[in-house]
Design brief:
With 495 residues, this protein is of the alpha/beta class. Helices cover 52% and strands 11% of the residues. It folds into 2 domains: 2-164, no CATH class; 186-323 and 359-492, Rossmann fold. It is built from 18 helices and 8 strands. The longest helix is centred in the first third of the chain and has 35 residues, at 2-36. It is globular, with a radius of gyration of 27 Å.
Length: 495
Amino acid sequence: MYTTAAASARSAAVAVPMSAFAVVLVVGWGVVQGVLLPRGPFTAVEAIATAAVSASVGLAAGWLSRSRWAVPLAPILFVVAFEATRWATLGEAAIWPRPSTYGLVMLVTGRGVHAVFTVVPLALGALFALVATGDGLRRRDAAAWVGRIVGAGGLAVVLFACSAIVAPARTAPVLGPDGHRLPGSIAELTTVPVNGHDLALLIRGRDETAPVVLFLAGGPGGSELGAMTADLSLEQHAVVVTWDQRGAGKSYSELDPVSTLTLEGAVADTIAVTEHLRARFGVEKVYLVGQSWGTLLGVLAAKERPDLYHAFVGTGQMVNLPETDRRFYDDTLAWARATGRDDLERDLVRNGPPPYEDLFAYEDALSHEHKVYPYDHSRNAEGQAGFSEHVFAAEYTPLERVHNLAAMLDTFAVLYPQLQDVDLRRDAATLDVPVVLIQGRHEAPGRAEPARDWFDDLRAPSKEWIELATSGHRPIFQQPGEFARAFAERVLTAG
């Protein structure tokens, strides 16, 4: 009896420091992840490596602790350490999700993805260790069976996630009438160094010697690689280069450090990408097409370096964000009162009119556009789903598809406050390049009216306003065929 008691005492004495070491191991792994991958894994290699290390750490924690408590505690300790380190690493850029649609998106596409490759493998590793050592989970009680079922389910989730993410991104070749690749065409996904960051380009065209178009997506933080391949009308006339700007889409991994992500830097990146395209295709100038936020970026780039561009083409033209946002706020508030949306009215009144320091405050004021300004979408190509219907395009890897929405929100939160002082009526009253605005007839008044004011007073070598009948803010995607035809007939022929 004495011997047994002594042995038990010795075992307990050994178990305590081992459990402490397990805690150190798990917390240390959380700190490492918070430093190296504060936004989660960006590539399949990073994700699989993260899952493997997490499972190993969980296995060690379970084996050292020899307690069922290791299964829930290891993930909890990891999350606490990771979030604390993540906050220290990213600072104010580490936005904590809120109970809203935007908040749910951030939780799922950010923490949710990270949890699949860290938290779940940690718990599985600890569970497997307990099964392997026979400490508590070989019994036939209910808890043991629940543990086995949960473990099997978690393992299935991790294995499925790891197998799914290895699919590469690709873009389809440009095909000729015979169904084979069209000679002289170009279709590639590439990455180019731009001011210290590797940024993604989608380049497509039926003729590699055709005029070059650089497309600037909306956002900030938006990616339109999928949208640009949903309809191929524009690439019939030009080599179309769709650029994922820093922090957007396939360039999401280049977001940090956010202290260097500025409006001036975005303009400099636009000019650098343009210079790359000039060298790549041996052309003196390119055509610049901007959509929404991309119109602000494009105008400022064309103003700074007009020698690089044949023309600027704006669609969904932005001019002054505070004025636009205030009009959206007023119209949304009026709509909420007229339709009995007391909950929305209450939230809008509580937030007050924009601008806001808090990203999530914009959700109430800006996310009801399709209800406040309705029109018949049935005759356009994009439909009411907007850009979301293009998220699953082959041009993105599975992880990039998930990260797309997180990229939009994270990058928006950094750049949008910097745009509050921009007013093209003041900052770009003169442009030394031809300007063509291809607008939607159903564009929201808060955007359309400032755009018209700017256009009417704009001094440029030439300017033209074109209106497409069945589109709103996104004519290039809502009426892609008509947009391409207007571009070919009114822009290329003039250039």
